[in-house]
Every structure is written in structure tokens, then in C-alpha cells.
């Protein structure tokens, strides 16, 4: 087992544990205002200090982890649920009008930066966590469709697929029973990568005010609130920034480790 996989799993588990724990316990009420103790540096009473309203930063980071993970997880789920079947259909109907429609639709989405699309969608539908999920999920659909199609095309000419076709199985059944299990490893790795990108996208949307709305804490909005106070309260920006860095780095290391672990060719090459 690679060091990347172990370190990535450790960091990701730490963030996930904080998010799960926030459902049952936080050191303080994240919405409780304590103006006399505002902008306190990290201490024994407040491990990560307090913000400009006197709220406990550690409690807000825990709730923010829950927000980021929920938004990214559902958004990636939307992308996989819709994108993988589209990719399988495009590969099974290679060269037909269906394949062209699916792939040209993918190209249309990829023509614009993901954050721009997310901002456009949330600007139309309104700010909020639900609309952020929709926006990020829509961009994930063509990502998984293209990855699935590319991997599936290389399998459709393999002998075991030809044998399945000769036995009378249709394209849909072959895709479900033979193609999908053989591309699942690749999709799992891509899912971890998109998960980290989803957390970044959620932070970006919250930073510009289009993500989760107050009083629900969000790492991106915590950074936005801190930008005018960096000179005299640097912990307000440093702590949520580090939370984003640790989470994204952990997921990327996890994805890299999973790729090495699930692909025997890479394991042999590195042995």
C-alpha cells in the first residue's frame, strides 16, 4: 500500500470525522455571538480563536466541513449518476447521432470554465447550497461521460465483449454486465478527484456569496469575511484556508494512491 494512499486516507478521514462529529457535538454553538470576545487569537478556550462576531472558529470549521462535504458529495453523485450512463450509451453507439449529440453537449459545457458555469447557474437560480449542488453537479456530468466513453471504447473490441455479442446479449446488457465493472476502478479514482474539485468549487461559490448562506458556516465565506481583517487577525483567513488545503490535498493523495493500488500495471512498474 503506497504512502500516498495512507496519507490521503488519513487526512480525508480526519476531515470526515470532524464533519460527522459536528452533527452531535461542537465546542460552542457556532451561531452564538460573543462580541466582547471577538477576534481572539487561538487559545485553550478557543482552539482556533474567534471571528469578528465572537463565534468560535473551531466550531465553524467543523460545520464548514459538513457543508463542503455534503455539497461536493451530492454534486459528484449527480455527475456519476447521469454521466456514466451517458458515457456508456455513447460508447455503445459510437459514430451514431446519439454519440454525436452526447459528445457535442459535453464539448459545449467544457467550453466554459467550471466556476463560470456555476456562477451563472447560481446567479439565475439564486444563492444557496442546493443551487450550488446543482451547478457543480451539472459540470460533473460531462466529466464522467467523457471518462466513461473513453474507457469503454477500448473494451468494445475485446474478445470477451465479442463473445458476449455473439451469445445474443444487447448493447445495454453488455454495458451493464461487462463494460461497467471493468471501468469502475477508473471511475472511483476520478470520483475522488472530482470530489476535491467540488469542495474547491463550493468554497469559490461561497466566497462570492453564491454558496451556503448565513448563518450556516462555509469555508469560502469565512475567507471572504476575513479578507479585510488579515492584518490584525490573520487566523481568520489562515484557518479556513488550511482546512481547504488539507482537504483537497488529502483527496488528491487518496485518488493517486487508489490509482496505484487498483491498477496492477502501475504497481508492477514501481516495484
UniProtKB/TrEMBL annotation:
Q: What protein name is recorded for this chain?
A: Peptide ABC transporter permease
Question: Which keywords does this Swiss-Prot/TrEMBL entry list?
Answer: Cell membrane, Membrane, Transmembrane, Transmembrane helix, Transport
- Transmembrane residues, as ranges? 67-88, 108-139, 232-255
Topology with respect to the bilayer: Multi-pass membrane protein
Q: Which GO terms describe its biological process?
A: transmembrane transport
Where is the ABC transmembrane type-1 domain positioned along the sequence?
Answer: 65-255
One Pfam short name: BPD_transp_1
Family of the protein in this entry = Belongs to the binding-protein-dependent transport system permease family.
Q: Name one GO cellular component term.
A: plasma membrane
Q: Which PROSITE patterns does this one have? A: ABC_TM1 (PS50928)
**Where is it located?**
Cell membrane
- The source's superkingdom equals Bacteria
Tell me what organism the protein belongs to.
Ruegeria profundi
